[in-house]
């Protein structure tokens, strides 16, 4: 192309804002020209920052449907339940799509998106950012070079982090399955996708176990009240909203990221106090209406016999994922930044540092956000579709594994795919 790609951002929350900021770093390649966001203050702030004309500022993504196509690409960063309607409608209007994970909240809706994408020849990427990190690129290179021989099994941990879990899955948008999706789909569909990408081949069988163990009324300490601002335990509780979000006013790192979300971007004592007093993020973690799991394991068997075990849990510090890959000639151990290869023949250890440390959303997923977004832009702008490694076929296949895992958990069975 001899001009920048034009982007419409649907949903100006944390993810939509991240992609818009990344586009602003490459004005010769991409430019944000439209936004759809129901929150007036968030929409106005976003539009002013990206110099979006008033006529291209919309309250709802459906406002784009009754007019000619406004941009080359629609970046869909809406709530999970809105993905299918937006993706299908906008693909039919000729938009190319960057779709936030998960694709949709059930398998039928994922299939509907795939059908629309194929019907329209849409250039679609799912934001499976883990596929794009320098860490993953190096890890796959080492495996391809035979650093540990053939893969026999893999062990992978997603440590959600205790206050991240409380923020997103007890108080936040993903606290109830009927309003969003399962924990596995919302938090770890890209972990399952990453495992399938690293191992390669087809998943043949799935089993899974998990439950909501701790964040329940019966686990509440004596004296706990419905909201943290009125609770006599707010200074001693590990999940205190007042500690987390007021801490974000003083911390310019990850805690501030969560404080910005709960206060709609306004980092003031008044805004945080108002949100703690009246908003969902001030609720006690033991007295809410949450129902998603707080821990789960998923076991996969691939064609050819490779086995993998995946654990996601709320009960950790907020830290990088941990992986061990066991091969016929060695063992690979990774933490999202460092990769250690132990060679069975020489009994030597070699450590590779991929240099990017912060693997959370607040830190750009260890470079994955930027690498994924740039790959998508370059694929479209430069005519290089091979740069999209999270397209419809791969993403649909890994989503099917997630849905099968949930069926296995609910049925107490092993599911064959």
UniProtKB/TrEMBL annotation:
Protein name: Gfo/Idh/MocA family oxidoreductase
Ranges of residues in domain GFO/IDH/MocA-like oxidoreductase: 138-221
Annotated Pfam families: GFO_IDH_MocA, GFO_IDH_MocA_C3
Cross-referenced SUPFAM superfamilies: Glyceraldehyde-3-phosphate dehydrogenase-like, C-terminal domain, NAD(P)-binding Rossmann-fold domains
Gfo/Idh/MocA-like oxidoreductase N-terminal domain ranges (all copies): 7-127
InterPro entries: Gfo/Idh/MocA-like_OxRdtase_N, Gfo/Idh/MocA_Oxidoreductases, GFO_IDH_MocA-like_dom, NAD(P)-bd_dom_sf
């Amino acid at each position: 192309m001899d001009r920048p790609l034009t982007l419409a951002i649907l949903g100006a929350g944390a993810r939509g804002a991240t992609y818009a900021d990344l586009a602003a770093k490459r004005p010769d390649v991409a430019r944000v020209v439209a936004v759809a966001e129901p929150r007036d203050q968030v929409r106005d702030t976003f539009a002013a920052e990206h110099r979006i004309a008033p006529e291209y500022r919309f309250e709802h993504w459906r406002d784009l449907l009754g007019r000619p196509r406004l941009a080359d690409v629609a970046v869909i960063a809406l709530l999970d339940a809105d993905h299918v309607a937006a993706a299908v409608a906008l693909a039919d209007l000729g938009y190319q799509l960057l779709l936030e994970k998960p694709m949709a909240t059930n398998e039928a809706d994922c299939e509907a998106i795939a059908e629309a994408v194929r019907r329209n020849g849409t250039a679609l990427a799912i934001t499976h950012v883990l596929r794009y990190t320098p860490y993953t690129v190096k890890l796959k290179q080492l495996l391809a070079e035979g650093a540990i021989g053939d893969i026999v099994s893999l062990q992978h941990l997603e440590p959600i982090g205790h206050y991240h879990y409380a923020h997103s899955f007890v108080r936040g948008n993903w606290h109830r399955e009927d309003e969003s999706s399962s924990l596995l789909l919302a938090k770890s569909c890209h972990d399952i996708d990453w495992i399938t990408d690293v191992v390669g081949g087809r998943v043949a069988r799935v089993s899974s176990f998990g439950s909501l163990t701790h964040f329940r009324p019966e686990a509440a300490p004596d004296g706990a009240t419905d909201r943290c601002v009125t609770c006599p335990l707010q200074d001693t509780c590990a999940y205190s909203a007042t500690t987390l979000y007021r801490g974000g006013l003083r911390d310019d790192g990850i805690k501030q990221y969560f404080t910005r979300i709960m206060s709609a971007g306004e980092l003031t004592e008044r805004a945080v106090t108002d949100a703690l007093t009246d908003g969902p993020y001030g609720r006690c973690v033991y007295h809410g209406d949450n129902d998603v799991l707080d821990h789960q394991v998923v076991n996969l068997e691939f064609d050819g016999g490779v086995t993998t075990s995946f654990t996601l849990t709320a009960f950790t510090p907020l830290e990088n994922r941990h992986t061990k890959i066991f091969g016929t000639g060695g063992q690979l151990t990774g933490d999202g930044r460092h990769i250690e290869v132990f060679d069975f023949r020489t009994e030597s250890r070699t450590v590779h540092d991929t240099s990017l440390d912060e693997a959370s959303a607040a830190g750009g997923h260890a470079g994955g956000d930027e690498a994924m977004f740039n790959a998508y832009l370059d694929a479209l702008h430069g005519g290089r579709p091979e740069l999209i490694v999270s397209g419809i076929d791969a993403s649909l296949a890994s989503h099917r594994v997630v849905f099968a895992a949930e069926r296995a958990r609910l049925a107490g069975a092993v599911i064959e795919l």
